[in-house]
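Record pair follows.
FIRST:
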Amino acid sequence: MTNHDVHNTLPPKTCSVDRLVTMEEDVNKVLEGKKTATRRNGRYADVGEIMELKDKKFKVDRVYSQSLGELTDEHAKQEGFDTVEEYKQSILSYHPGMPWLPQMRVWVHEFSPVSE
């Protein structure tokens, strides 16, 4: 699978959209507009699903697979960090003992605020 939108070939979700962004620091980054994507080891949402954080709604715009080795500083900025290294250190601090393998694939969930 590549970085392209592959709506018709997405595997079943492994979790629910309400578990997509749960850490307080990340929730605040989303609410402040500093985080517009999250990467997970499973697929948590379908395109078009709505995530609600503190009474604010966000629509999932894209879902695609990406390897950790493909990450750029621009991707890190989507996550609310300045560099891939900052993002990497944050992830590794949440998951002690987890290796950072360039070939490891994750699911990218990009989202945007729903204007009401």
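SECOND:
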Amino acid sequence: MMPFDLILRGGRVVDPSQKLDAVTDVAFAGGKVAAVGSGLKADPGTEVRDVSQFIVTPGLIDLHTHVYWGGTSLGIDAEEFCRLSGVTTAVDTGSAGPGNFAGFRKHVIEPSQVRILAYLHVSHAGIFGFSHRIMVGESEELRLMNPIEAAKVADANRDLIVGIKVRVGLHSSGTSGAVPLDIALEVANEVGMPLMAHIDHPPPSYEEVLARLRPGDVLTHAFRPFPNTPATAQGTVKKAVLDARERGVLFDIGHGKGSFAFKTARAMLANGFYPDTISSDIHQLCIDGPAYDQVTTMSKFLCMGMELPDVIAASTVNAAMALRRPELGSLKPGSVGDATLISVRQGQFDYEDVVGEHLIGDRKIVSEGVVIGGRWWHPN
């Protein structure tokens, strides 16, 4: 065996991919998880960290971010965000399209210490008109749809591109309705990748979008407020939503500036309909509220009744499966050597959703440090 580079000693290890919740050690070597077990022995030169006060999870995956910093007006700095939020894999969802992905790759993704994966937008320049003063839905103009180049770019960048992104709804596709979604699905079928669909106000309706999605496709903003909510006025889950889950469509939170409501979440959770993945949809217009970061988004679900292992699963193994990257989101030996240290603080914490409702929660998940590629990586 290779000598251990790092041992996290004595933390509470919560790894839903292994159904593991125990106080034990985690060792890393050669950029991968090397061993999980009690009393792991250090080698000469092994860094040993006492993490007995913390919870150790697989590296958190934020399935919905916007981190094309400098390339789009909504992009935030991935490294700064990930340090504070305990995220080791940031998945950018459509900031770049086929016309500007090369710049995203060269200037942001490749220099980044944090892993950045991407859903490629089917629109030529991605989400280009999104700021405090300019709001232009890139899917409104069908001339910007670029399926041929999108397929070429996705195929040429399979190491980083995990799927195809499209935004539909009144604010993003205007009177084009579901047509951009149909175009994006053609691309996804051509390259054999999953699709992530954004939804906002109708048209199209929640049901129309779900009807088109395939097993493994992701509906983001799944717990959005009225209109286009997954819950009925009576507080039940719409049949189309249940049918879509049954056939393998995945439901992602994608909190963001306008896409998560406590009222919707309460109804869905009360019916036992948990999100497949919890993500922040972090960008320039929500990083200072109401989304803030990944651990704050996770905290909201913890305070609404989800158990901690389920919250962690929705930000680790479930996200890895949505990405079709099983080497992520796990502390199984041989997995990518990423881990997140968190604590769950007790107290009174004020959480807000996108429609102005506040929830006073009694717990808050806090990032206490991260391991990336088997090495301690943290601002301190």
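COMMENT: The first strand starts at residue 6 and ends at 15.
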